């Protein structure tokens, strides 16, 4: 590993200046990696470049060198840590149980602490977007409503037809086609703060509505509540919820992530619920580690431990409570619908939830599950990776689209808003119009709705 370590030293950098968050880590965490290499074929950036420094064990060696005072935190080190997708595929492959998420977030936090990547543009974007818009849910919703007006009024279509988007700066011009479609109604308009099942509740749960999920996929939140109601749960959904902090933690702003975690704990008392439900893979992976995030906070530590114990992905929770499979329709059924499944990285690798979404899909009448190759590989979304690393993100997107379309399925199911947008944009760019993208819970909710519709229609038919 001497070559990549030396290559990341910069003239004038002082290893003595590196003592910080990485040096403060429990050293056993840095020593866990056995350098066995089993992570290499699972790491997208290593597969792309075949460079050791672009692999999990290479990055861990660099972190250890910094903790040992042999290497300074430099721009080159910062670029390397942000080239990592943070997909956590290495954690699934690792036989030693290396705590890569902890190392990864600590390294990025140290990079931000030392400011080696700082530029005026970067500081402004992080301040306005991460610490401004995404820490204020009402401001985020106002931005969403403005974007919704832009889209629904025809202004967006007109700007595209007139090629006015060419006037945008290069980065915005590249990102404009990827803009998510904002829903006409956000979650609070679709979901009451408390909804009761019929006839009686067997469990009491809370549902997290998220940020992008709330603006662009509020139908997923409504479907989540419907499915929980169908399985005997009383559902609590506060109308204005803060961001979970995953974007901040993954981008080195641990202090803001802690502030947002405290807000969540103030809004949801975990002691009053049987479970706290997340339906977004990327958010859930962060949410279930509030105990680690707030371990040093005496006022919130105990609540954070209880929160992490009760935080459940919706698929995980449904299988845990032995959810009710929808009834098959009595009337003549349409041909089976072919569905394939793309695994959200932070759902399968971060939360180890993999078979449960498949169990739900296979329970739906008329659905046939066709597995796609590399289902657990990252699609290239990875939070804001498609913004910060467009070339590698596009390579992964094309690779993923090739695999899902090769299944011949009519629908690709996925359980994360970033993945949903990446797949939808990739399908559109490839000209593939016959395949749609859905959340598994939306498909389950539709099956329950069809069941109710048939039941209501039965007396009339009789």
In helices, the fraction of residues equals 40-55%
Low-confidence stretches: 1-7, 10-18
Radius of gyration: 23 Å
The DSSP helix count reads 27
Q: How many DSSP E strands? A: 9
**How would a crystallographer describe the biggest sheet?**
5 strands, mixed
Structural class: alpha/beta
Beta strand %: 5-15%
What is the global morphology?
A: globular
What is the arithmetic mean of pLDDT? 91
Measured between the Cα atoms of the first and last residue, the distance is 76 Å
* Side-by-side strand order of the widest sheet: 1-3-2-4-5
Characterize the structure shown:
- The chain is α/β, with parallel strands linked by helices and about 450 residues long.
- Helix content is about 50%, strand content about 5%.
- The chain contains 27 helices and 9 strands.
- The chain has a 5-stranded mixed beta sheet.
- Strand 8, helix 26 and strand 9 form a beta-alpha-beta unit.
- Helix 6 packs antiparallel against helix 8, helix 15 packs across helix 27 and helix 23 runs parallel beside helix 27.
- The longest helix is centred in the last third of the chain and has 22 residues.
Give the helix/strand layout.
Layout: H1 2-7, H2 21-24, H3 27-31, H4 44-49, H5 56-67, H6 75-83, H7 89-93, H8 100-114, H9 120-130, H10 137-152, H11 155-161, H12 170-175, H13 187-190, E1 194-195, E2 203-207, H14 212-216, H15 218-230, E3 233-236, H16 246-250, H17 254-267, E4 275-278, H18 281-287, H19 290-293, H20 301-310, E5 311-313, H21 314-320, E6 337-341, H22 345-350, H23 355-363, E7 367-369, H24 385-388, H25 390-406, E8 411-413, H26 417-429, E9 436-438, H27 440-461
Helix pairs in contact: 6-8, 15-27, 21-23, 23-27, 25-26
